Amino acid sequence: MNYNRREHTIPAPCIVDAGTIVNKDDIKRLLSDLGHVKYVHTLDNKICGQGEGWILEIFNDPQQATLIANSNLYLNIQSFDFLKLYRTDDNETYFDLVQDKRQLRLIPISVDSTDQELEKSIDENIIEQIMKEVIAARFDAKLDDENS
């Protein structure tokens, strides 16, 4: 009889809406699509800082810091021991990144459809302007080549 060692291993956890996550890859995956958040930084249960910002990067590097400045968040999951996932009574989700007596709470800020349309419109206008500048630069370069 051939025994498969996999039959005796513990299955991977399944966490739905609430729980504690310790695997760094799972934490990174869970946070990767947050975008705009409200954050609350506490130390020994005392608020040290809070605000709103955009998560610009989530990385896993023991040599770099987690940085929050100018409404931008650069989160190094190595800065934290685990993540606690919560669901409120209003079905809102929030995340607590915990390291000893330090906690960074991330509360997603949902973007309503009008904000999404505005962002899309702004993005399209920026792309259109960039394309105009590229075409103009290529045209200028072609004229310079012809005049040389």
Structural description of this entry:
The protein is of the alpha+beta class and 148 residues long. The chain folds into 2 domains: 98 residues; 38 residues. It is 29% helix and 36% strand. It has 2 helices and 8 strands; from the N terminus they run βαβββββββα. An 8-stranded mixed sheet has the order 1-6-7-8-2-3-5-4. A hairpin with a 2-residue loop joins strand 7 and strand 8. The chain starts with 18 loop residues before the first strand and ends with a helix.
Question: What is the strand and helix layout of this fold?
Answer:
Layout: E1 19-21, H1 24-31, E2 36-43, E3 46-59, E4 67-69, E5 72-76, E6 82-87, E7 93-99, E8 102-108, H2 113-147
Parallel strand pairs: 3-5
Antiparallel strand pairs: 1-6, 2-3, 2-8, 4-5, 6-7, 7-8
Model regions low in confidence, pLDDT < 50 over at least 5 residues: none
Q: Could you give the distance between the termini?
A: 82 Å
The strand count comes to: 8
Mean pLDDT: 83
Strand order of the largest sheet: 1-6-7-8-2-3-5-4
Morphology: elongated
Structure keywords:
148 residues, 36% strand, eight-stranded mixed sheet, 2 helices, alpha+beta
